[in-house]
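The data are quoted verbatim for reference:
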Amino acid sequence: MGNLEVWEDVMDESLDTQVAPELGDVVTGKAHRIYTDAREFFKRTYFTDTMLQIFERLIETFEGRERHNLFLIYSLFGGGKTHTILAIYHAFNDPDALLDEDVLHGYPPEKREKIVEIAEKIKELGGVRIVPVYGKGEIGRPSKPLDLKAYKVRTVWGYIAHALGKYDVMRTDDENLTAPEIEVIRELFSGQKVLLLIDEIVHHVDNLAKSANEDDRRYAGNVAKFLDALGTALLGTKSAVVMTLPMEKEGKAEEEYDRNVVLSLWKAVRRVGGSELYSPLRTEGVAGGELVEVLKKRIFKRIDEREKERIIAVYREVYSNTEVFGRGSAEALMKTYPFHPEYIATLRTIVERGNLQKTRDMVRITRVVVRKLLKEFEERKFAPSLIMPFHINPKDRKIHGILFSGNKLFADYGSAVLDSDFEDSKFAKFSKPTLAELVLRHIFLVTYPYDSPIPLPGFPTKESIARAVYEKNLFGAEGWTPADILNIVEEIDNAVVFIYLNKKGGVYWFWRVANVAQIVESKKEELLSYNYREVYNELKKYIHRMVVEGKMLTKKKKIEDQVDFFDAIIVDTTPQEFEDTEDYKLQVLVRDDIDKDTLWDIIYKHGTGTRTYKNTVVVCYLRSIQGGRSPLKSLLETTATIIACDKVTGDIRAKYGQWGDDVVEIQTSMVKDIRERNLKDLEEGIVKEFKYVAYPYNDDVMEVTASSSSKSVVRRVYDALVSNGKAVTELTFEGLKEYFSEYAEIDIENSMGIPFSEIRRIIRSNTRLPMIRDSLLKEAIKEGVRDLEIGIERGKEILFKRVYNEIPNVKEEGVYIETVRPSDVILPRRVALNRQIANLLKMEKRNVVEGDKLINLWFEVYLTPSSEPLLLRELVEEVDGELRVKDEYFDTVLHGHIVRRYEEKPIKEENEFVINVDRKRIEGKPEEVVEVSVSIEPLRNEGFEVTLEINYGELESYEGIVPFTTKWILQIPKEKRVATLTAHADGVVKTESITLIPRTDIITVSELDSRHENHQLLEILGIESSDDLESIPESINGFVEGSFSINNAFKAKLNDLAMDVAKYIIKEVGDILGKKAILDINFHVEGEVILDDWLIESLRPLNGKVTFKLKKRD
């Protein structure tokens, strides 16, 4: 691995089983060189505080300064007892090995100095005789004595005596199997420094105690007595005993041995006042105490300190993201590098709680892990920045063997759990399958050793998982981010495929008893096999809830973006026939085998024939992907899971009650989670899969795929119709006209009237037209009325132009219509205007006497607020018995303001009268002679005399008796003139006037159309915006006059400026001030500009915004 140098022996798989050699093999030289050679051994040994303390106490004992002569090293299997014994053996056998630079490498100065000091003192001791006693070796027993030719050794004390060359001292006790007296033992050790190393003595005694040989069993009971006497005998001497026992200080012993045997030996040693107890190494702390140092020494020859600092800095920055990693710290890396702290913690959990042999199996597992990483580096040139917990792969053959081989308690985890929940297919659906497996692997490794049905403190949470799984180099190579871990944890939280994974409150763990998910899964399969119709009907209910009721499945609330476009919705598994009505209808078919013929029948067929309202039915359905998955099957499976959850809930206590209420609660909660997640999946699946939409188009069937991301099926269908132009979300009157003109061949503007109900019927019947909601259709009609494009006939009332009581200072628009009724008839504007004017004129009152009052009610038209009024009645003519606006005044009346005038005068005199003239405004050619009928009508009495005088023209009679009539002959002047007539009758004076207007063939209109072709354009008046000014084609030359202002901050007058200059000034000032100008400008055309169809079309954007002054041409 990149910057790490590994010991060569790590690559030798055969040494995995020899990570803790036996004392006997080391002494005899049978063990590997790394254990028999003192220097090689020490290079791979971390000198724990316990080792150094024992070295110092032994030295003091041999120097006669220490009264403690018996040192007991205790731990369970694999805890480092034998390794400590071997360290003592090599240190006193070859102290110079401790001074080797490679041995001292990597220790802090203080510990390094202590090791050197110990080595020097051991060398100064002189001859220390080392006597190894290996309990698993041949040390003699009554039933099988050690045959040494001269004598046979039957006991451990006989063996020690033989090793010291003093067998005769112990011959009697050895032959009689009796524990020697203290004095005999002292005689054995007298005059020499002896280091007695006793390892695996429990194994020896336990075998004796279980022997079928009575002498063996009797002898076994005397070993403890011997050890008791041995400890006492050595007090005050310069000899010492170092012995190992496979137990903990709390009295817990290895299950392999009889606990009574172990305790008897323990008590025998503890009775001695000079005994000391030692645990081989400290394991407290997050970083694993001395364990991590032992691992590093056993695996790595060299560790690059600069690389270590760099990596720690990287992770320190990474872990600052507390949103992902919580409050984890990178400081523990200072102690554990190149191992991740969680690797050490995970390894300890596996070994200490998984019935493994502590340090021994930690080393074995790590050797396999590191070897695999090294091979990966050789093959892929990839090396991780740290050794992570997930590098311990329980599916790896060797690691699996270490963890589970012969381990009955955890056998289910090594078989059923791994085989089921770590099957490759289980991760295929995750967004990042590999990352999902690493997360699950971590959860498995740190929780299976607890074999717990409930969550325990320290079990994985999303933050601890993130810290244990994030590895910089791997994430970089895969393109993953830290946030991906949280996403995967969430996906795992939502998954129901892991039948041994348990979850509660954001805590995750594995338990060998299949969780309730397996029961749910079995029940689901049963439902699909034997109760398929029940599942199908339940799916229909869920779809009905979402589509028809508009309610969510996961929450008790309405779907937010549901749309009310359809008046009727049917959800079913078979095609259903709708009533043939104008309502828009949606059929949701819960099946995925629909063909086009079936769709045609649903959309068009009614009874034995074809429906009238062919443009009203839409179908939404599923579709199987050829050679792929079935969306219906997927929805049915999800529905079956929900039903299964409901059925399983009542059985949970019977299944899990034996493990307590907490387990029942956890499993119940898991069922609830499974149900809720499947409801969510079903909700999302229904919306996702019901994406195929069919609708009527050109008397055929159009099939499209919905693509919106809405949470509503109805909304997705509606959006599909909109995106494909079959439904509209907005509609102008102009758009409505175009639809009807292009697809229905109906010109709404030029018809004689069409009821709204007929327009609606056409839309619902003609499949070439889009589907239009009534609200949009009505708004378009109302817009047409507002823009004076159409009018509405409602009974005898015409809803078209506004009628004012005073001259308004606003742009003219049609009446406001609150709603459009089905019986309303849509009229073209010319028809609407003529009928409305006819109705208004019927309301007029001319010189009507009511009591003592004279009433007049009439209507005037104002093209602009400041223009002269025109009598409405003089702007109409009668054609074929019907009143209509004269052509030359049509635009004037259409865009002008109609003002209602009412006059009420008291009749004071008896000879009160009124003057009536049949015309008050006369246009004609200059010098043309016209006649006007004049009548004098009495208001009360009649028969009195009246005299007339005029200021222009001639009268046939200038006096007469009331009632009186005459003719007023007038000649059209060359310039506009007002002619007046005054009548006198006994002090009562009345006046009437007639306006004479010479016709010049000059007209003003607010809109240009084809009727104005071949007219000369003279002026464009009332330009109010710079956009409108820009709309005037550059081909029209002329000059402007008027003013413009900007936000009350700037105002300027324009006098006879060329058009291009005016445009430039207005634009520049607007750009500087950052605002658009408001104009009050008239444009005077230079030269003769004759309107043709191109110019009329070019000027169309100004229609309704300005006034065009035109001159008629012959």
The radius of gyration is 55 Å.
